[in-house]
Design brief:
Structural class of chain A: alpha+beta
CATH superfamily of the largest domain in chain A: Alpha-helical ferredoxin
Number of helices of chain B: 11
CATH topology of the largest domain in chain A: Fumarate Reductase Iron-sulfur Protein, Chain B, domain 2
Number of domains of chain B: 1
CATH superfamily of chain B: Fumarate reductase/succinate dehydrogenase, transmembrane subunit
CATH topology of chain B: 3 helical TM bundles of succinate and fumarate reductases
Structural class of chain B: mainly alpha
Number of helices of chain A: 8
Largest interface: A-B, 53 and 46 residues
Order of helices and strands of chain A: EEHEEEEEHHHHHHH
Oligomer: heterodimer
Distance between the termini of chain B: 69 Å
Shape of chain A: elongated
CATH class of chain B: Mainly Alpha
Number of strands of chain B: 0
Order of helices and strands of chain B: HHHHHHHHHHH
Bound molecules: FE2/S2 (inorganic) cluster
Radius of gyration of chain A: 20 Å
Largest sheet of chain B: none
Number of domains of chain A: 2
């Protein structure tokens, strides 16, 4: 099996980037996309060249560190899958693949395929938390939370903050990320005291970071590795209207 | 400034305008106002088919009800201004928010209508300018009043083509706009969500089809084909 890769290379955030062409054949279909890049990098290093910089941590789809727009789709062609969990068997012999970093103004490129996603951290710092002391894990059913609500909270909390939503959005908007966090915290009893201020501070920070504005294109939910639904965005908007009339 | 003061300041009217999501809400509300107006506008314009006397009587009736007449115009003009300002500034901002474009990008879910809102919006604006110019008599085909100026305009195929193009563009614009406003206004329920797309399609295609029918009937094309049955 052999592939042609066009990989984005950029030496630092201010440098002019360009695509570099590589042909690679020493990988197996059971390798993940990142393992294939590891093989590429080993080859580059032994040839005395700079390896390609890319982000990863857990490599099991839970940390949100990996990124990459693979052939035009954030996290590649397989649904509900992070780049680290994407396997080379998804590609066929002779494929030409374009590999690009997240292209979002608020996520500047650090090097090659690595982008700085601290904009998402700052949005969380602006209100994506509960300041009440909750102590250790409460006994089951201490707080009455319905099964449906618990499920919605859980599916919202699966957001790993990878940034694929903003990367996929034609407007480079962070709405799905912010909405998932707001739903996750605002649906639980512990999240109520800050519910109204949270939506304001987080939305204000989202705008401050320079993300684009939601156009309801639905690209975000299509690429989200955790399949978070855009109904969270509608819910976030309702929370915003609610906060205008309530303290 | 303590938290409560900060929060109060954030809820003041000028600050609300600073939130992109609130501007989107203004976009949605103004869009609804314009959609409602378009249905009323169609209903009024049916009088065009009845002849010059009836049409002029309709205009006189409007003039005789200034509260209704100017009330509607104020709302429509305000809605248009909001729609134009938010639409264009957001488009400009979104255009820059990506900074470096993708070399290769595959769209997964968005529609052609959604991607071309700025184009359809601009075409609609140009159409509106022509339409108002004809109504106000800045564009003269026949100087014998609004009715004659309209009808004389329709004798030119180019004018007819512009009107038809305007309506088709409107259908595309509303196909995305009417769906988008549900999301923006938070109108969402798992049980009814699958109705939002068809409703948007019916609104978009509906208004356009009603107007096109009016144009064709007015041209007498349909009546000639159906032998006067319509
Ligand atoms: S490396 Fe952790 S999610 Fe991919």
């Amino acid at each position: 099996m052999s592939l042609v890769l066009h990989i984005w290379r950029q030496s630092d955030s201010t440098a002019q980037g360009r695509f570099e062409r590589h042909t690679i054949d020493e990988f197996t279909p059971d390798m993940s996309f990142l393992e294939m890049l590891d093989v590429l990098n080993e080859g580059l290093i032994s040839a005395g060249k700079e390896p390609v910089a890319f982000d990863y941590d857990c490599r099991e789809g839970i940390c949100g560190a990996c990124s990459l727009v693979i052939d035009g789709i954030p996290h590649g062609p397989q649904n509900a899958t992070t780049t680290c969990q994407l396997y080379m068997r998804e590609f066929s012999d002779g494929d030409e693949i374009w590999v690009e970093p997240w292209r979002v103004g608020a996520f500047p490129v650090v090097r090659d395929l690595v982008v700085d996603r601290s904009a998402y951290d700052r949005i969380l710092q602006a209100g994506g938390f509960i300041s009440a002391r909750t102590g250790s894990a409460p006994d089951g059913n201490t707080f009455p939370v319905s099964k449906e609500t618990a499920d919605r909270v859980f599916t919202s909390s699966t957001c790993i903050g990878c940034g694929a939503c903003a990367a996929a959005c034609p407007n480079a908007s962070a709405s799905l990320f912010v909405a998932a966090k707001i739903a996750h915290l605002g649906l639980l009893p512990q999240g109520q005291p800050e519910r109204n201020s949270r939506v304001h501070t987080m939305l204000a920070q989202m705008d401050t970071e320079g993300f684009g504005f939601c156009g309801n294109h639905r690209e975000c939910e299509a690429v989200c590795p955790k399949e978070i639904n855009i109904d969270r965005i509608a819910r976030m908007n309702r929370d915003m209207y609610r906060s205008l009339v309530r303290r | 400034m303590n938290e409560v003061q900060l929060f109060t300041r954030e809820r003041s009217l000028p600050a609300i305008w600073h939130y992109s999501m609130m501007r989107k809400a203004a976009m949605a509300v103004s869009g609804i106002a314009l959609i409602v107006f378009l249905f009323g506008h169609w209903n009024g314009n049916r009088v065009l088919l009845e002849g010059e006397m009836e049409f002029n009587a309709y205009l006189e009736w409007l003039q005789a009800h200034p509260l209704l007449h100017y009330g509607i115009w104020t709302i429509v003009a305000a809605a248009l201004v909001v729609h134009l300002v938010v639409g264009s500034t957001h488009w400009l901002h979104n255009h820059r928010a990506r900074r470096v474009p993708y070399r290769k990008k595959k769209q997964q879910a968005t529609t052609w209508a959604a991607r071309t809102m700025i184009v359809s919006g601009t075409i609609l604006l140009l159409f509106l300018v022509l339409h108002i110019a004809q109504i106000r008599g800045w564009l003269v085909f026949d100087s014998g009043g609004v009715y004659r100026n309209l009808q004389a305009g329709f004798e030119h195929w180019a004018v007819v083509a512009v009107y038809l193009l305007g309506q088709i563009t409107l259908a595309f614009h509303l196909y995305h706009g009417a769906w988008s406003l549900f999301q923006t206004l938070g109108i969402n329920h798992p049980r009814y969500n699958h109705w939002r797309r068809p409703i948007a399609a019916v609104i978009g295609v509906g208004i356009a089809a009603l107007n096109i029918a009016l144009i064709l009937l007015n041209l007498d094309l349909v009546r000639r084909v159906t032998g006067g049955a319509m």
